[in-house]
Amino acid sequence: MWMMHMTFFWGKDTDILFHKWPGGRTGMYALALVFVFAMAVLVEFLSHTRFIKPASNHLLSALLKTFLHVLRVGLAYLVMLSLMSFNGGVFLAAILGHALGFFLAAAFHKPPQDLGFDLPPVSC
User: What is this structure's pTM?
Assistant: First the structure.
């Protein structure tokens, strides 16, 4: 009988997002960690960058903002579902991904102070 972990544990024998993935294989576990890390970086990047010019078409701006919001929320939920594996490596990959994404957005994407960001911050 298959049991799901309900506390944090360390090891590569876990299921992340999909049944039998990564399946206990070291290479696939590393790929899963990279995938979670990349999703967390992208969530932060989408949260802190500006894609839409202030003088652009309001309807197209609203459509693009809606698409970006759906993408950001979907990725955030996938990261959260990955964390529900209770694997310590996945937890560290998600935290480090969010940290790197926040750092990159803060260091390299400096929007004008009066314009803000395209999307409101993710509320936890």
Answer: 0.81
With 0-12 / 13-18 / 19 or more C-beta atoms within 10 angstroms meaning exposed / middle / buried, residue 96 is: middle
Helix (H/G/I), strand (E/B), else coil: 9: strand
Kindly compute the dihedral angle of the four CA atoms of residues 11, 92, 45, 81, in this order, to the nearest 10 degrees: 50
One pLDDT digit (tens) per residue for the chain, 124 residues: 556 777 788 888 888 888 777 877 778 999 999 999 999 999 998 888 777 777 778 898 889 889 999 999 999 999 999 999 899 999 999 999 999 998 988 887 665 554 556 666 665 4
- Sign of the C-alpha dihedral computed for residues 94, 99, 100 and 104 taken in this order: positive
Terminal-residue alpha carbon distance, the chain: 35
**CB-CB contact of 18 with 77 (8 Å):** no
Q: Dihedral (C-alpha) 4, 9, 14, 15: value to the nearest 10 degrees?
A: 60
Instruction: Tell me the CA distances in angstroms from 24 to 14, 19, 20, one per residue in order.
Output: 6, 12, 8
